[in-house]
Write a structure and sequence with these properties.
Blueprint (H helix, E strand, L loop, with lengths): L11 H27 L6 H5 L6 E6 L5 E7 L4 E7 L9 H14 L9 E6 L13 H19 L3 E5 L1 H7 L24 H33 L18 H5 L3 H32 L28 H9 L3 H28 L10
Parallel strand pairs: 1-4, 4-5
Antiparallel strand pairs: 1-2, 2-3
Organism: Coemansia javaensis
Protein name: Mitochondrial resolvase Ydc2 catalytic domain-containing protein
InterPro entries: Mrs1/Cce1, RNaseH-like_sf, RNaseH_sf, Ydc2_cat
């Protein structure tokens, strides 16, 4: 399940049922794609399974104000990559949302047949980062997600959800730094402070890491400007990364510390995402400072073998450099690359288990 990018349940029965349903649906999709490409039935199941990986993918990062999508081919060519502002502000008017999403699907998104392309959409949640409330923007994003599914399926395309947590884990963007305590932070407070002291330590570490990550991202942006023939902007000298004062943090309430830690976690993830994608663009342009960050995925997680980088156009690189909301563009391209890695593992899974007598989901 991990190799195929599937979320794992809590029980063995749930895992078996989910994996069985995935195998049956994947085998049926592989056979349909093979028939659509060859116009005849495959004599061997393995031959049809090889046609499972789609020639193209359209990856969509949901947002009513900042929606981003990337159209990527199987060999790593980025065919389209842009951010779209659907709405200027949140609204719950169904006729407005329906018209906006329908116009976006029909006029902006590339529409490809199910035999050649898969559309993947970042799965939205009503609550995230431990929040107890559901904000208006989150509800509107969920409505946009549902309308996207309805419009895309009406066009006859193949649509799949993607768990954003699995994408973060794949590219090593998760909060692994919380377990990395420096020697000076071994025991900054009394044991009686418990979880409050742990949160304060994590925030202090993330503050320093965030500042270091921003410096790395800034150097990459300067290198990208030079590779594009532009003059890098003058930047203020970066302050030393020192983190917050632990004593001052420990005086704040536990709820405040929890909220601040979640905010820092999201900011570090965004900076890491931007740094990773910028390293891909620099590698494509043949520029210096193109090495991926230390947290980047290893070679065996790269889906576009033997290509070692995505193929962008010069116009896309310039648009990315000028874009102010780079994290949205990065999320959709990272999602597409991770999805292709998972897809390449599916034919082997089908060869091993597709012919077994598994119970059908509707049986």
């Amino acid at each position: 399940m991990r190799q195929c990018g599937l979320a794992q349940g809590t029980t063995k029965a749930h895992k078996a049922a989910a994996l069985g349903a995935f195998i049956w649906s994947s085998q049926a999709l592989a056979q349909r794609r093979y028939a659509g490409q060859r116009r005849r039935a495959a004599r061997k199941a393995a031959t049809a399974h090889a046609a499972f990986v789609a020639d193209e993918v359209v990856s969509i990062d949901i947002g009513f104000r900042n929606l981003a999508f990337a159209h990527v081919s199987r060999d790593g060519r980025v065919l389209a990559w842009r951010r779209v502002e659907l709405l200027g502000e949140a609204t719950f008017e169904p006729w407005t949302l329906a018209a906006v999403v329908e116009r976006f699907v029909r006029s902006v998104l590339p529409i490809r047949p199910a035999a050649k392309c898969t559309y993947i959409i970042e799965h939205q949640r009503f609550r995230s980062q431990g929040s107890a409330s559901v904000t208006d923007s989150v509800m509107v994003n969920n409505l946009v997600e549902a309308l996207l599914y309805a419009n895309l399926r009406h066009c006859g395309v193949h649509v799949e959800p993607v768990n954003p947590t699995l994408v973060s884990v794949h590219w090593q963007l998760s909060a692994a730094w919380e377990a990395q305590a420096g020697p000076e932070e071994a025991a900054p407070a009394q044991d009686r402070l418990g979880k409050k002291a742990d949160a304060a330590q994590a925030i202090a570490r993330m503050d320093r890491l965030l500042e270091e990550q921003r410096q790395t991202t800034g150097r990459q942006q300067d290198a990208l400007a030079r590779a594009l023939g532009l003059t890098p902007p003058r930047r203020r000298s970066a302050r030393a990364a020192g983190g917050r004062d632990l004593d001052g943090l420990l005086q704040r309430g536990a709820a405040y510390l929890g909220s601040l830690r979640d905010t820092r976690r999201r900011l570090v993830k965004k900076e890491r995402s931007v740094a990773l994608v910028q390293s891909w663009i620099l590698a494509f342009l043949g520029a210096e400072s193109a090495a991926p960050p230390a947290h980047g995925a290893a070679a065996d997680t790269w889906p576009f073998s033997p290509r070692r980088h995505l193929a962008f156009s010069a116009e896309m690189a310039r648009a990315f450099y000028a874009e102010k909301k780079k994290d949205d563009l990065c999320d959709c391209i990272l999602q597409a690359a991770a999805w292709y890695h998972w897809q390449r593992a599916v034919p082997a899974i089908l060869d091993a288990y597709g012919s077994m007598q598994l119970a059908r989901p509707d049986a």
